[in-house]
């Protein structure tokens, strides 16, 4: 019992630290662009009469998030151009946030009426800058934490800010678009990126991201500096976890697959279901907000109380069940009560699963390679889903052949839910291997 008292005191003290507020705001900045180049953009495109197949394929711009490990070594070691004087982490935050804002302004000016090519290029710019921001924000979150308790607290704060941004860019923007139009709505999102910019300016550069670790470009590009920055993080990870790293990557890669696959079709589904943008935005901003907060809190408590693997297992089951529940809406029609119930379940399950996975991945990184290793892990959990979701529109159209479009959607959501089964099996297998190791069984290597 006495050992628990200092821990509680440390957590309470950590809550009062400025880092928590900074993490909250940076989480908001990271979450804001995500749907603006994906699900929300799909709603705008559907409003303009774009086919489901084209919407699905355009979602491939999100592959930038899955490939960020390719340039993460450069972000980890090189100073940001122009803004390098702010520090390695803060400089890249500022640079990427400004590019995201510029890209969103471009989308507000050159919307779908100027052709899908212009939209695709601008969305790709936003996705690339946004994924770069994620690399450095994740590194700052891990390096700024003094201990595992504070890491959990910062991870929860990140998810809280991230989910708040998702509600803004996936809910409130619909209400704004219904009254003021999509261009003004996207321009407003660009202005909101100033929240993250302000957080980057007041943030403290982590002590573990010391200026001595920054490598000048000529030194980085030659010899040992480049080898250590690019190969070092990967060799260190596999040296630490051995063959078990492959099982970890497989589980992480498939964990969010159901949600990624159904994502591009969610907003077009609401459009085709007959729900107004005001209704969708209002439900997401009220019931969705409360459910998101509860899901984040439940995920954090579960990770502390039951451990990583039980929380991961609960999360993947919840995620699959709530995605299957979307098929109910295909038969209930635009019923606000049914829509509200499904949205509440979806936001709770998605938030719970997100906290579970982020906390687990954060625990796997090594000091010195934080940005690159976390980028590798976070890329792993998006790569399969980001690629597969590009075919979501064609899948719905094929399933609707000989049926109504809404029946095609229903089958699609059930199929997406079943994609959670491999991740569940891998969670259980990985949990068993780690439990055997901790009991003195076979080791990591």
Distance between the termini: 35 Å
DSSP strand count: 0
CATH superfamily: MFS general substrate transporter like domains
CATH topology: Growth Hormone, Chain: A
Describe this protein's structure.
By secondary structure, this protein is mainly α. It has a single domain (15-438), classed as MFS general substrate transporter like domains (Growth Hormone, Chain: A), CATH 1.20.1250. The chain has helices spanning 4-15, 18-36, 39-47, 52-58, 63-66, 72-77, 88-109, 116-144, 148-180, 182-192, 194-202, 217-220, 224-230, 232-241, 244-255, 257-273, 277-306, 308-324, 326-332, 336-362, 370-388, 392-399, 405-418, 421-438. Helix 2 runs antiparallel to helix 8, helix 15 crosses helix 21 and helix 18 runs antiparallel to helix 20 (336-362). The longest helix is centred in the middle third of the chain and has 33 residues, at 148-180. The protein is globular. It starts with a helix and ends in a 7-residue tail after the last helix. The relative contact order is 0.14. The model is unreliable at 1-6 and 210-223 (pLDDT under 50).
Could you name the key traits of this structure?
445 residues, mainly alpha, Growth Hormone, Chain: A, globular, disordered N terminus
How do you describe this structure in short?
The chain is an all-alpha fold.
List the helices and strands and how they pair.
Layout: H1 4-15, H2 18-36, H3 39-47, H4 52-58, H5 63-66, H6 72-77, H7 88-109, H8 116-144, H9 148-180, H10 182-192, H11 194-202, H12 217-220, H13 224-230, H14 232-241, H15 244-255, H16 257-273, H17 277-306, H18 308-324, H19 326-332, H20 336-362, H21 370-388, H22 392-399, H23 405-418, H24 421-438
Helix pairs in contact: 2-8, 2-9, 2-11, 3-16, 4-22, 7-8, 7-10, 7-11, 8-21, 9-10, 9-17, 9-20, 15-21, 15-24, 16-21, 16-23, 17-18, 17-20, 18-20, 18-23, 18-24, 19-23, 22-23
């Amino acid at each position: 019992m006495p050992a628990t008292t200092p821990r509680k005191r440390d957590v309470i003290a950590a809550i009062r630290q400025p880092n928590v507020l900074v993490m909250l705001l940076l989480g908001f900045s990271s979450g804001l662009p995500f749907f603006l180049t994906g699900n929300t953009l799909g709603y705008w495109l559907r409003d303009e009469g774009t086919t489901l197949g084209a919407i699905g394929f355009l979602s491939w711009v999100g592959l930038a998030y899955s490939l960020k490990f390719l340039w993460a070594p450069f972000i980890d070691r090189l100073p940001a151009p122009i803004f390098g004087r702010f520090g390695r982490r803060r400089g890249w935050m500022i640079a990427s946030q400004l590019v995201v804002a510029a890209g969103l302004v471009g989308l507000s000016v050159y919307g779908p009426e100027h052709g899908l090519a212009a939209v695709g290029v601008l969305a790709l710019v936003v996705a690339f800058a946004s994924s770069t921001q994620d690399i450095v924000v994740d590194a700052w979150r891990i390096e700024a934490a003094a201990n595992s308790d504070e890491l959990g607290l910062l991870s929860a704060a990140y998810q809280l800010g991230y989910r708040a941004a998702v509600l803004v860019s996936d809910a409130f923007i619909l209400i704004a678009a219904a009254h003021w139009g999509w261009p003004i709505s996207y321009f407003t999102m660009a202005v909101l990126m100033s929240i993250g910019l302000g957080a980057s300016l007041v943030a403290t550069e982590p002590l573990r991201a010391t200026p001595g670790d920054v490598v000048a470009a000529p030194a980085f590009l030659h010899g040992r500096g480049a080898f250590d920055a690019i190969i070092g993080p990967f060799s260190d990870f596999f040296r630490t976890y051995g063959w078990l790293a492959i099982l970890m990557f497989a589980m992480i890669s498939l964990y969010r697959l159901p949600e990624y696959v159904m994502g591009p079709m969610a907003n077009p589904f609401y459009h085709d279901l007959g729900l107004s943008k005001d209704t969708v935005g209002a439900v997401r901003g009220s019931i969705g907000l409360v459910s998101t907060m509860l899901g984040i809190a439940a995920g954090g408590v579960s990770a502390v109380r039951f451990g990583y693997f039980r929380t991961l297992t609960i999360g993947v089951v919840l995620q699959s069940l709530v995605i299957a529940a979307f098929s109910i809406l295909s038969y209930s029609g635009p019923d606000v009560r049914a829509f509200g119930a499904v949205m509440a379940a979806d936001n709770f399950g998605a938030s719970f699963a997100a906290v579970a996975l982020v906390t687990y991945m954060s625990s796997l990184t090594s000091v010195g390679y934080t940005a690159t290793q976390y980028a590798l892990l976070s890329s792993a959990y998006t790569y399969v889903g980001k690629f597969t979701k590009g075919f979501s529109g064609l899948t719905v159209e094929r399933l609707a052949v000989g049926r109504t479009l809404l029946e095609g959607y229903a089958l699609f959501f059930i199929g997406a839910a079943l994609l959670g089964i491999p991740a569940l099996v891998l969670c259980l297998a990985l949990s068993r291997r780690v439990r055997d190791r901790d009991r003195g069984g076979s080791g990591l290597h």
